[in-house]
Model the fold of this input.
Amino acid sequence: MYFFLSFLMLCSCGQYRAYQKVLKTQDSELKYSQAVSYYENEDYARSLQLFEDLLVSFKNSERAEDIYYRYIYCNYHMKDYISAAYHAKNFSSKFMLSPKKEEIEFITAMCYYLDAPRYNLDQKSTYKAINELQLFINKYPDTDKKDQINNLILELNQKLEKKYFEIAKLYYETGKFQAAISAIDNYLEDFPETSFLEIINFIQIQSYYELGKNSVDEKKAQRIKEAIFACNNFLIAFPSGDYEADAKVIYEKLKGIQNGL
Done:
């Protein structure tokens, strides 16, 4: 076992020294061949550094496109999506007639998709990803990736739905009933076919109820009236829904408050 571990350490040290030697060499051809070798063996960390050096050495040569192409994929495979997207966009501008342009523009869109965060974080990157994916579809309407991209856009929109559903629900749970009502109105306008349609409407009538019940006297009558109207609409829209019984209880409570005013 000791000899085996020693052998592995020697191999590792030998590989490190060989890499450092290539990294420092002024022989661009040798550096290129080694970079390609590392790349093909999926050693993207080592090939990335070599290709980065070669971007300068082969700046105006026929190999520049290939080097930049592989350099972008090194960043992509190492999950540095921001760098990969930046260089992919630059590639499209620099090599406008490249046969790889469509592929690289797809990678650009994928980078933004993969960089999009979980639903409970800032969704600026999610909007950017949707925009980039849609731009790709618009530019290449006959792409064989159309179904894949449409599914990715749907997934990102569902993430936004979840984000804003949770925000509206949180307003209700923290007693900010007026804010909850407004947030739900905006939510339903932005996501009219949401999978949370029934529950978000039920949260809204709960908000109307709590807002009306706890209003000052000069506002109570109008707010109770608005809450009753919201309950009626809910019961018409979801006559056999999961929250029908609860909505009817709220309705009866509201009528009782109204009759007592």
About this structure: The CA atoms of residues 133 and 150 lie 8 Å apart. The mean pLDDT is 89.
